[in-house]
Amino acid sequence: MTEAFITNPVGILTVLTGVSAFFFFLEKQTKWKLFNYFPPLLFIYAVPLILSNTKIIAGKSVVYGWMGDVILPLFLTVMLLDVNVGKAFKTMGKGIFVLLFGTLGVVIGAPIAYFLVKGGLGPETWKGFGALAGSWIGGTGNMAAVSEGLKTSGSDFGLAVLADNLVYIVWLPIMLGSKNLARWFNKFTKVSDKRLKQMEVEAKALDMEKGKMEMRHILYLLFLGLLNAWVSSFLSDFLPKVPPVLTSGTWKILLVTTFGISLSFTPAKKIPGSHALAMALVYLFVANMGAKAQIGGLAQKAVWFVMGAFVWIFIHGFFCVLGAKIFKVDVHTTAIASAANIGGAASAPVVAAYHHEFLVPVSILMALIGYAIGNYCAFVTAWLCYLVG
To answer: Do residues 287 and 44 make contact, with C-beta atoms less than 8 angstroms apart?
Structure first.
């Protein structure tokens, strides 16, 4: 077997970092509309995939394991510092329950969709469904975390990334276009004008500014993330295992998540720069997953996986509408709740800005709730898919 051109761990990490940086640079400098449909995430996964499969960089290296042990719990901890459950409930009220109904739709829809398409997939592809559930409940960070906890193959992770982006192209316009149904929808759900006005008042009073990021803040964040990674890794070895879902890796992710959420109730939540640092590390980890994947495994199962994802997303949509009906919530909040689930903090503000500009800060809060519950719910989803497999 021919040895790869770049095998040095530092060299591989340099390439992965360079690829991640390049596509955000390209998006910022060119403002190509292409990135509206195929975001940098897709390229950040695909380019390392090509590089490793063409032997430009090694497909196996100690650096990949190191990133799972260190980078993943680090970004997860830092990401969860921004969660603010109290503010979200105060501002959105019953809208949070629509978000949770949407989450329930993701959890229930996954095993149904997987059952329908499993004949065209591999025996371990339920892990890919679990990874996609992480994205559709929380975001890219959750997808990476759940994938690592389940030890999802790079190929099945790639299927999740592909399906995530293809469904997003269809689902986002539906969420945007739902604004035109506001009068009919609000009549259908019997929402009161008083609630809409109150939500606007609360949203405009939100203050999410944490101040300017300084050098010491980076050190604070690194310390908290690494401490959480260390403690969670240590404790995970002592907890009961129920393979193939509840393993030491799963426990580690759940512990990191729990401790991260706990830190969001402390003064640590006020540390500036947490979101930017977390997302930079998330994309670096996605590049790492791409480098470990095999192209052959992707091509054979892609059509079936994507078909399942489309069945799945409409089940989620049904649950969002059901939640809106039960709790008498407007179409704007419902669309944002779905976007907060399916697209996370990157998409929810886009939908919010289109519906009502004042809802943008609120949409971020809703997406952060998804971050908080994403890992827990995604592991349950993976387990359900495993059972129907």
So the answer is: yes
* DSSP codes, 54-74: TTSB-SS-HHHHHIIIIIHHH
Query: What's the CA angle centered on 315, arms 341 and 290, to 5 degrees?
Result: 55
Query: How many other C-beta atoms can be found within 10 angstroms of the C-beta atom of residue 130?
Result: 30
How many other CB atoms are there within 10 angstroms of residue 80's CB atom? Answer: 28
Q: How confident is the model at residue 20 (pLDDT cuts 50, 70, 90)?
A: very high
Instruction: Return the domain boundaries, the chain.
Output: 83-278+300-388
Q: pTM value? A: 0.90
Identity of the residue numbered 386: Y
- Answer whether 325's CB lies under 8 Å from 311's CB: no
Q: Which of 11, 77, 59, 43 is nearest to 281 (CA)?
A: 77
With pLDDT > 90 as the criterion, what percentage of the chain qualifies? 71
Return the closest-CA partner of residue 69 out of 226, 220, 235: 226
Query: In the structure, what pLDDT confidence band is assigned to residue 207 with cuts at 50, 70 and 90?
Result: low
pLDDT tens per residue across span 124-139: 999 999 999 999 998 8
